[in-house]
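Contributing: when you submit paired examples, paste them exactly as shown. First protein:
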Amino acid sequence: LSATIVLGDDRSAQHLFGKGGDEGIDIRAGELDPALRATAGTTLTIWQVKFFRDGIKDSQKKQIAESFQRAFKHQPDRWVLCVPRPLTVGEARWWDEFKVSAAQEHPRLKLDVWPGDFLVQRMTETLLKSYFLPPVVGLGDALSRIERRLNDFYPVSEALARAHDANQRQP
C-alpha cells in the first residue's frame, strides 16, 4: 500500500527488494549516494514500512530505531515511517520524542509517520483521481471527464436542469 501511494506520487521512486537486509530502506525517491545528490542538486526521501499490527512496543521501537540508523548512513533529507494503524497516545508521544532526538543529531532531516488511516485516505484519493481524472490535458478536458463520470451515477444535465427549475420557483 505504501509503495503504491509513493509510486503514484513520484514516478522516480523505487520499491526496493529487502531480502538479505534492506539497509532501512523499503522505498526511496532520489539517489542513495550523497555525492550524486550534491552534484545533481536532488534530495533523498526514504520510506520504512513496518507491519506492526499489534502496536509499537519496546521491541518494535528498537527495530524502528535500528532501521533509522541504517537508513541514515545514506544521509536522507526525509525519512518516513509507515505503520498499519493509527498511533495510540503513548505511541504518538514516543514518536514525538524520537523526532526530537533525531533532530538533535540530524537537524536538517525531516521525519514523518504515515499511520494506517493516513495511508487509506491517500490510497482513496489516488483511486478517485485515477477514476475521475485519468491523464488530463487541460481544465476543460478535466471537467468533461468529470461530467462523463458523474453521468454514470446521475445524469448531470438533468440534475442541473432540476436545480435551475427549483431556483426559478424560489421567490
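Second protein:
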Amino acid sequence: QLEYVYNESQSSSLNIEVTNEKPTIDKVVDGDLSANIGDTVNWKVTATVPSTINKLETFSITDTLSKGLTYTADSLVVTHNGKTLVKDTDYTLSVEGQVIKVILVPAKLTALKDVVVTYKTTLNENAVVGTDGNKNDVVLDYSTSTGTDSETKPTKPETDPKVYTFGLNLT
C-alpha cells in the first residue's frame, strides 16, 4: 500500500492520470501533383489537436517552401471545428522568405478536433524540373507538457509532399 502526504494531509488512495499524446501533422497537395511554371498549387496541412491543448504554451505550424514555390499573399486560411479562425485573434501569421509560420492560440482551440491550414503557391522559375520535385517541409511545434518547464517538440509528417514540373528540351 502506498501512502502519500500532500498539503499536510495523508492518504492511502492515490489516482494518477497520465496523458501522453503526440499530435500528428499531415500535408498534401490539394489537386494535381504536376504543374507548369506560373501555375497555382494548392496546399492543405492538417494537425490534430491534443486533449491537453488548453494547458499547452505552444502549438504552431511552420512550413518551409522550396525555392521553386512562391507563397501567394493573403491566401492562407485556418479552419478548426468547422469555423474559420481569425488572424491576429485566434492565430498569428508570419511570412519571411520561404518560411510560413502559423502560431495558434491554444485557448482558442477545441481538444481532439483538427486544425486545417490551406494556402496557395505559384510554381516559379526556380522550380526543380524532373523527378526530384519541389519539396515543401512542414513541422508542428507543441509543448511537451503542461507545466512551466515545458519544452517544445517538433513533429513532422511521414512524408513531405512535392509538386513536379517537367520540361521539354528541343535542340
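If you have annotations for the second protein, write them as plain sentences, like these:
The mean pLDDT is 83.
The radius of gyration is 21 Å.
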